[in-house]
Give the backbone structure.
Amino acid sequence: MNVIPDTSVRKPTPNPNPIPNPASAPSLQPAPKPAASRILRYLAKEWSSWLLVVPTIIVFLIFAWQPLVSGIYLSFFRTEGYSAVEFIGFGNYVDVIQNSVFLQTLKNSFVYVFWSLVIGFVFPIAVAIAINELRRGKSFFRFAVYFPNMVPAIAASMVWLLLFQPGENGVLNMLLSYIGIGPQGWLQDSRLTIPLIVATMTLRGFGGTVLLYMASLQGINQELYEAASIDGAGVWRKLFRITLPQISNIVSLMLILQISGVFQVFGEPLVMTEGGPNNASMSLMLQSYFYAFRYFEAGHSMALGVITFLILMVLTVIYFWLDKKFDKEA
Amino acid sequence: MNTAYWQKGARAMLGLGLVSLLLSACGGNNNGGTASPSASSGSAASAEATSSAGAAPTESTEPVTIKIGNWPKPNDEANKQLFEDIEAQMKTKYPYVTIEHDEWGYDVVSFLPKAVSGQLPTLYDSFYTEADKIIKAKYSADITDMMKKYGYDTGINPELLKLVERDGKYYGLPKDGYVIGMMYNLNVFKEAGLVDANGVPQMPKTYEELAQTAVTIKEKTGKAGFFFPTKTNQGGWMFTNIAWSYGADFEEQDASGKWKAIFNSPEAVAALQYVKDLKWKYDVLPDNNLVDTNDLLMMFGADQVGMSFGMYEFLGPLVLNAKMSKDSLALSSMPSGPAGKAALLGGGLYMFAPGSTTEQLDAAFKWLELRGLTPKATPEALAALENNLKIQVDQGYVVGPHGLQIWTDPERVAAEQEIAAKYANVNMALFQDYMDNSAASMRPEPAVNAQELYKALDTVIQAVLTNKDADPQALLDRAVQEFQRDYLDKVQ
């Protein structure tokens, strides 16, 4: 908070421009001075700009960085509730990794990501392009695909639970019975659990992604299509040579966001299956949640959180490395 | 000059504005301790009407403030009135005590934020099943001195005291006790023709009979005969009952003090096979196999299930939330397995906020005395009990049957039963077996990492109920091996 400096440092620099211009600040600096006094001078000059940033920084400090740092800190301690009791180095990490369900939850988290890419990645792109091509009713469809996003996640999961009710009285099973298919176990079939959870997540959440793709599609220069038409390019050719390359930036951004988002899935399995049956839908974050809220073992929970964080870091780095490599080759 | 002044003034205003905005935002955050709906049964509330007070020994009368949890919500007028009456008595009798209200009642999800932020009420409710992790996390105060001072250490059933004792110190106060029994939905039983001339349902005496009764219900009504939970650690919690009565046990300590997981014995496998048969041989369970007590209350309340394991404290929510009639419910003791009967102990606790001062704890115990939760049959305690029952009768709860007796003083037990009999509002024949035969088969929770054990059993139970070809022996072998490695090997 101490950004309001001693006014004695301020020098009455005649500045005809009433708006402080940060870009001009370095050029006004005379010969190099000791760092401390340079910072003071800089603050003295720019304190009002800094003041504007302060609220954001404080909010970030309190609500984002502080929990992050104290989480990492706690993960190295034996904890009682949320208080650190004794430094145990990587003890929590060893416990968490050696736990019998760890490998399965790790694998499950990747399976979630896999299915979300299979089910949910191409789908919004296709829908966005389709809506973009519409001549009429564009705004209706834009609203219609976004609509499910407004339903709270938990409520949506509860409704899906009713639809997926196993046995003859489940809604989906009744529909299936009309076309002569016997009742399915749905979420209780351990092979189907994750794909079904991902499908419900996709149906609920793809609208937001569609809007982003549509915004990007609107930005494509129409002259490209006209030129392509003159050169005799068909629909598919235009799609693969113009549309997709033009939105490839946002596609790759969504890819990384989706991977990191789905990797941390926990609300949907918590509501729909509690990680069951037989841990078939348990994810890393759900396990972390159980450590913290069901067993009050903050240390274990934080350690698992940090492990998840590191895995995502590695994935992201690999992704950017590949991206760069392909860019160079292209 | 003028411009410079204006500019300076504007900056200062801007700065002040931002700072005050920020401060008010931070301040607003402090009101976070909102009340959440109580997870405890509606029967928790009790009340008191005092007669003349016992003479309190001379004590420090420094001003002290305590916060009482589970304060009745505004719509629960009868109980609210009673709490306010006790507050008024506190004021006259102990004027140095200030009482604050907190409507928060124990809830698994909101407990942790409340505890971590130091917002726990001085006196709060909890359950036996939660005690272990709360004590481990040091979210309950050591109340040993107060327990001794007010005579609870000798006045309460020692079996119950064991649950809140660690290394000779007490961290909680048992307020009621129940053992698990069988719970019957009489509407479904009538539909299935399983009720005798006196309205008493056919209560199965063995697990084999339980399965057969459930089959009859399913055949006659098409509804699920029996409910068995499988998630939220409740599957394992309930499975212990079956396993014990099949002769199995879960953990044993050898001479060197090491713990060993032993729930892959032939007896345990037979018990798990029984659960599996309920699904695949008898087909009497609900279609959905990922369920817990919340689902039970909904299905039972909607007359979709005939029987379930249950206990006295389930009756309150069934009447209050599921709108069941108190006359449609019955309880019996557990069926026998090859090794006899076994029933797990359950119930409610009072716990005290960590960091409470001696004076605060003392004031909280004085509050409990006025509420009637004392080991001796004082006129105060009995009057409190009577008032509480009056309210329960008014609100349509089941009154008359009792859970486990927590007090050791026979005089108090007898006096309490006399009052209960006076206010009984149900056919006592429906609960007689539960009251007579349950306590004898009482078992405490497994000693080490009970919740983690239940979780391990949950997954095993889910496996046998969702996969027809699952092998109980293989599943239990694996669970034993993992539970041993993940938890028991780490016990010091």
